[in-house]
Amino acid sequence: MQPQASEKVGIAKEKLGVFISTYGCQMNVNDTERMFTLLEMSNYVPVTSPEQASLIIINSCSVREKPVHKVHSEVGRYRKLKAVNKSLKIGVTGCVAQQEKKKLMDDMDLIDFVVGTDAIDELPQIVARLRESDEKQIDAKFRHQEAYQVDTLVRNPGVSTFVNITKGCDNFCTFCVVPFTRGRERSRKYSELVDDVKRLVDRGVKEVYLLGQNVNSYQSECGVNFAHLLKGIALETDIERIRYTTSHPKDFNQELVDIMQEYREKICEYIHLPVQSGNSEVLERMNRGYTREEYIEKANMILETIPGAVLSTDIIVGFPGETEQQFEDTMSLLDEVPYESLYAFKYSARPFTKAARWEDHLSESEKSERLNRLFAKHKEIAFPMAKKYEQKTLAVLVEEVKEGRAFGRSTQNKSVHFATSEDLVGQTVKVCIEEAFPQTLRGSLVQ
Ligand code: SAH
Ligand code: SF4
Ligand code: F3S
What we know:
The chain is α/β, with parallel strands linked by helices. It has helices at residues 5-8, 26-40, 67-77, 79-84, 94-100, 102-107, 123-133, 178-181, 190-202, 226-236, 254-262, 280-285, 292-305, 324-336, 364-387, and strands at residues 16-22, 44-46, 55-60, 89-93, 113-115, 137-139, 160-164, 166-167, 186-187, 207-211, 241-245, 270-272, 310-317, 339-346, 393-402, 405-410, 415-419, 428-436, 440-445.
């Protein structure tokens, strides 16, 4: 008789292996951790390859490019495994699950269950029902009416941990599927969030990364806004560092930057501020709620209030109807705002969105050509910006030490490497930067 996959890797017999593949943003990464934690409490054990698993979950993302196709092709790769392992169950979670719902199972018989973005906490029960009844399961209902209560669930929190502060999005940018896959915006209670961070600190966490689609519209039940949430976490907990993402430029205000500056000992000076386009007409058609000029004004406000603040952005090229001149406005924005990192994407039509229904779509080759030009321009600008860190001393929170090399992040969100023989994980150390590369900085420990 062939040994079971679980025996090969020495997993206790009664435990079942679970493999999760994760696509998309930090929210999905955080949701995957949540699923692992919940499943570990119900007799599953994480495994590192699909061959070892009795449960495979694809935690999907729908934000760009053929996401449904990606899910189908990954599930297809498991056909052989399912043929030899009759107890193997395959499920889809995340934004494609929310978007496609039952259709995923109708189109692909290998899929046993579909769990939407609001139903993650039901996962253990859903999987248990599936095993008991052998009937396919689906829960893709939004829970708009329920309070948003999600204490962070993380197995080994390590040095830095994600903490959800809001879910969903009510902005309905005309290109974006997220309001349809994550539902209406809800904020967690202020007191629950502070307690959550305190518990993480007790478990050794040094840095929390606050997450939301638009963190700036955080609004607690007792009227606390995002700026005051940051201040509250800085004052009421012993967390060493606070980061957050993503900010929406329309809601970014002076109060927030003032609080960041006042509590800069704890709140990192790195701000991801997605602009999407440098042309005001395109921004209006995107429904972003700000003009080029207003955006530049906010970027300047940040740079003036927080000395040394670091900005990064997201840009979409080839939005429907984008002319060459309008694209040039995006190119020239790079001369006005010193973005140290740039995440740029070709526009991709998404289901349910307004822009997908418009007729003036650009060809793939036009979009690719613009994307290449934008990256080439940013490359020219970014390297000299990285070089300015050479000979500077940065505060680095060490995340990993391996074979005499330490890796960590500076408050500016720079990846920093240096040599050390000590186990400095979890400590914030001073590192003098010797050489800057486009993505990372190399330095040496300042004693
Ligand atoms: N809430 C964040 C963005 C989440 S999606 C915000 O408002 O900035 C992450 C990024 O994906 C977006 O900033 C955008 O640049 C990109 N994106 C979203 N929808 C897209 C689409 N249809 N085509 C191409 N890029 C898209
Ligand atoms: Fe999408 Fe806009 Fe919401 Fe960001 S703010 S998630 S881009 S709809
Ligand atoms: Fe993708 Fe959903 Fe995040 S669409 S980017 S996983 S919110």
